[in-house]
Design brief:
Largest sheet: 6 strands, mixed
CATH superfamily of the largest domain: Nitrogenase molybdenum iron protein domain
CATH architecture of the largest domain: 3-Layer(aba) Sandwich
CATH class of the largest domain: Alpha Beta
Order of helices and strands: HEHEEEHEEHEHHHHEEHEEHEHHEHH
Number of domains: 2
Radius of gyration: 22 Å
Length: 381
């Protein structure tokens, strides 16, 4: 390791709530990497500490320069705070949808430059060593408990000790049984990331912008008894026959736009659980017909335009013996379900799209000023 790298590495240290104590139950190490300059006597002092469950407190000696996350929603948070240039990797690159940035002058992320953490055979922990990030904005319990690629706690702990700390919470959904600790709302998680990057002022500006948009949308919404219920699902392929259900009512951040619009969960009181790491439950069109939702939202198609979705998935439903009987299909109320992971920038665009599609008689066009939002992200306001 070069001397320059050692010097930069001295900016981070894991504090009292170290990863080892949180996920492995072992004794906490010093968290000191980069030679002999420890937290109690190095060439730099701790500048700030950030706390988030399940890891606890992480102390920083400066602002992280290189960072990665498994969750694209956290990637969007970093971009919103003006730190997109330091992002080196996400868990699944195709699920990091960056098209919203195209509408924001001066804001961009080239996903071709990002490394994908998740490989065909799962996660090879060596990738963390190769990327050598200052901080991993990822919930370590997600890495350990995910049924598709679960890592050993010791392996995650070694990454935290030898590369950089973990800090993050699985916030995009709330259906995983192993998640026994506190959940955070989108803006609570965003605020925590702002503390990591020392961007309190920019976060406050973004939050105020968001609050104004939400207030305007809610002021124009139809009365509650005139708002539809919705069934949110995940369905792969252009001709989906079976779907994994989500629950709008579970509080996850990837459903925030639907809660902002006052939609009710079509699966309420049905006993059908939402998708989780342990429950990949499936429903078919017969089950959908029993529920007969007002609106159907299908995830897994964010790479399609609205017209492309209509010409494939929706067209297949219109011609399907059972699906064609659904009220949502007959009434043309089947839409893309939005990204699985989303941060604050993506949420605003998801909200606008959902509002104009679900309430076309109420909302149309752009619901917020792109230049104003871009100015906050680029610090030109």
């Amino acid at each position: 390791m070069s001397s320059d790298r050692i010097s930069r590495r001295d900016v981070l240290t894991t504090g009292a709530g170290a990863l080892t104590a949180s996920i492995a139950g072992c004794a906490t190490g010093s968290g000191n990497r980069g030679g002999g300059d420890g937290a109690d006597g190095g060439s730099s002092e701790v500048t700030h500490a950030v706390s988030m469950e399940p890891v606890g407190e992480v102390a920083f000696r400066g602002v992280p320069e290189r960072w990665l996350t498994y969750f694209p929603g956290y990637a969007d948070m970093g971009v919103a705070l003006g730190h997109g240039d330091g992002l080196v990797a996400v868990g699944n690159v195709p699920r990091y949808h960056v098209d919203a940035y195209d509408e924001l002058p001066g804001v961009s992320v080239d996903t071709d430059d990002l490394t994908q953490v998740l490989g065909e055979g799962g996660i090879d922990t060596e990738i963390y060593y190769e990327l050598d990030a200052d901080v991993h904005l990822t919930d370590p319990q997600w890495l350990i408990n995910n049924s598709a690629f679960g890592l050993e706690p010791d392996a995650v702990d070694e990454i935290a000790s030898n590369v950089g700390p973990f800090l993050g919470n699985t916030v995009f959904r709330r259906t995983d049984g192993w998640h026994k600790y506190r959940y955070y709302t989108l803006y609570e998680a965003f605020e925590t990331v702002a503390e990591v990057f020392q961007e309190r002022e920019r976060y406050e500006e973004f939050r105020a912008f968001h609050d104004d948009v939400i207030a305007g949308v809610r002021a124009d919404l139809p009365p509650a008894d005139r708002r539809p219920n919705a069934l949110l699902t995940f369905g792969n392929g252009d001709e989906p026959e079976r779907f994994s259900p989500y629950r709008l009512s579970d509080g996850g951040t990837n459903k925030k736009q639907f809660r902002d619009l006052g939609l009710t969960d079509a699966l309420a009181d049905t006993g059908i659980s939402g998708l989780s790491t342990t429950d990949r439950g499936r429903i078919d069109y017969e089950t959908m017909l029993e529920v007969n939702p007002d609106v159907i939202l299908v995830r897994g198609h964010e790479d399609k335009t609205a017209d492309e979705f209509a010409d494939t998935v929706f067209a297949f439903m219109r011609n399907h013996d059972v699906a064609s009987e659904l009220s949502a299909v007959r009434n043309g109320r089947v839409f893309r379900g939005g990204p699985i992971y989303q941060g604050p920038v993506q949420h605003l665009f998801s909200l606008e799209r959902a509002a104009t599609e679900i309430f076309p008689d109420t909302f149309s066009g752009e619901l917020f000023d792109r230049d104003e939002l871009a100015a906050i992200v680029t610090e030109e306001s």
